[in-house]
């Protein structure tokens, strides 16, 4: 995605396999767009972590590594924000029912911190269940960050 300093809206969409290699590919695509959008080095690190967590959730928990299921990545660059949508083809989940990773009984668990990290590193986070099955995560990052 070329630089968006002209104020135009730009976007890229791709379909990725349900593999951990796709996590790296998605991170590279998003970081390229975030760099073009003018995000700084600290923000790029946070964006990278959020994308990796969202993609791992889609590949591992959503699609369960199924070779028959894909992950869709869409990155939209507007003058004031970057919006990333990640869709899996899994069974979906209820974000409200996820255990609190900061609760004493969950502190030593190996998983469960991904959504917490994503929320901490983006300006807006939305979960939507797709009619066709699966889940879409939307991550929005504003160019003028408050963090």
Please give a quick description of this structure:
It is built from three helices and five strands, in the order βααββαββ.
Structure, explained:
The chain has helices at residues 20-36, 41-62, 114-121; strands at residues 10-17, 70-77, 81-87, 124-129, 135-142. The chain has 147 residues and is of the alpha+beta class. It has one domain (10-142): Histidine kinase-like ATPase, C-terminal domain (Heat Shock Protein 90, 2-Layer Sandwich), CATH 3.30.565. The protein has a five-stranded antiparallel beta sheet, with helices on one face. Strand 4 and strand 5 (135-142) form a beta hairpin. Helix 1 runs antiparallel to helix 2 (41-62) and helix 2 (41-62) packs antiparallel against helix 3. It is globular, with a radius of gyration of 15 Å. The relative contact order is 0.19.
